[in-house]
Amino acid sequence: MATDSAAAEAPDAYDELLSKIRRINNVEAASMLLSWDQQVMMPEGGTPARSQQLSALSAVQHDLLTDDGVGDRLADLEARDLDPERAAVVREVRREYDRAVRVPTDLVERISQKTSEALPVWERAREENDWSAFAPHVEELLDLKRQYAEHIDPDADPYEVLFADYEPCLSLDRAEEILTEIRETLVPMIDEIRESKTPITTDAFTGEFDPDAQEELAREALSMLGYPWERGRLDTSSHPFSTGTQFDARVTTRFKPSDPIDALTATIHEFGHATYSLGLPDDQYATPLGEHRGLSVHESQSRLWENHVGRSVAFWERFLPTMKGSFPQVDGVTPREAYESVNQVYEDNLIRVEADELTYHLHIVLRFEIERALVAGDLAVEEVPAVWNDKMEEYLGIRPETDAKGCLQDIHWSHGSFGYFPTYSLGSAMAAQLFAAAEADLGDVDSQVRDGEFDPLREWLRDNVHRHGQRYETNDLVHEATGDDFSADAFTDYVTDKYGALYDLDSV
Are residues 365 and 263 in the same domain? Predict the structure, then answer.
């Protein structure tokens, strides 16, 4: 009896594993908060200390994850017949453990410290239009990330290993198939649009728009969409982003006096990210069931709110009166004119985050090709500006005059985030598939948006995507939500219908 009692009181391997994982994820959350502070409000001189702080936390997180106790408990649990939720947790921890245990802690520390040091260098280099000032940091980060990939799987394509950090459940081959279908649909469509003689409004939002008034408008948009201010905040940063948990999901944006739509769409985009974080189950915080599925799914949420909601006619019928209250210079604009302006396909399209919904994906193709060549060693870092400009001219018909509007416009390489960019297009394809399923279930979503009723869509996404955390892998999650495997079909149908009507493409 004493033996049975002791066994009953012994900690369960699953509970022990969860305790360890919660500690690891809380260290990661603290790191994210320090990174947010660095990008939003840290004094310029704080980098030397912040880089050491982030490096130390990354080492602690890595050591906790690779502790023998984690491996022992995984082995114990994998020998058991677990319920689906516990099996999902073990699967996800096993994936992270197997990757992390192969990477030396000192390499993890060096990568973290280098990315923290690279961020302010990138910001200065962009201000000064000087790739050469940033290039040595890119070279060092590439070397470190190649070492990282080599440790994880010396026989694999290093880019594929890095891609799995951001999208762990889709193979790079499957991702490329989807990206290829998107490209093959968009390239001829963009050519048709540029040949179209159909006039659309392109100048509904010209003039000067006070940044303070833009910020207030962004706050009104967030409130209208249902952003819970008690669990978030809005700030400005050099590159819009969102970070956080289900208890604290923060949004950043930036303001251009000549373009209020840039800040508005960026804010709605980041709202989508934040809403996903906030929709994760509270009671699973810091466990795999309370963590996002991956960046393709995360991006699907931001692209859905930005494009399927924020660029719809219904949204502008609802929101334009609010905008007119802030900016009298748009008093004469109609909802249709606003819709056409925010959906126009630009010929002069240098900046990815300012790109229209279609040419945006050619920006992704360009970055994907360049960073894949960089990781493979087929492209020298000093050659990036010339290759970037050549590809911009080939894919988008325009050549950047400065590095700031070319190869220095994105923050990602300062973070060492090689392999991230494909998730933007994958997320857009997923957004279309999810939105089509939501429309099938909810009925006339446009009427709900027009009436300012955003709760049904937000709750549908919470029920079908957010609340599952990492219970399902990517394709299974999409199938559970939509009834079909993940593909580009819904996206190609969506853009064909939308832009075919906007530009009267049948007549081209």
Answer: yes
User: With 50 as the cut, is the pLDDT of residue 8 above it?
Assistant: no
Residue 55 lies in domain: 11-116
* Residue among 190, 51, 211 nearest 121 (CA): 51
The model's pTM: 0.95
Catalytic residue from among 270, 299, 337, 473: 270
| Total Cβ atoms within 10 A of residue 283 | 8
Which tens digits make up the pLDDT trace of 323-354?
999 999 999 999 999 999 999 999 888 999 99
pLDDT digits (tens, 9 = 90+) for 414-423: 999 999 999 9
| Structure-token pair, residue 379 | 């492209």
Q: Does the active-site annotation cover 127?
A: no
Domain boundary among 116, 139, 164: 116
My answer on whether 225 and 341 are in the same domain is yes
The Cα–Cα gap between 209 and 211 comes to 6
Lateral strand order in the sheet of 249-253: 234-236, 249-253, 242-244
* Percent with pLDDT over 90 in the chain: 96
| Residues 67 and 179 reside in one and the same domain | no
In a domain, 188, yes or no: yes
Both 267 and 346 in one domain: the answer is: yes
> What residues have CB less than 8 Å from 80, skipping those under 6 apart?
none
Which residue carries 């909601």 as its tokens?
309
| Total domains, the chain | 2
- pLDDT tens for each residue of 396-405: 999 999 999 9
Tell me which residue has tokens 């994907």: 368
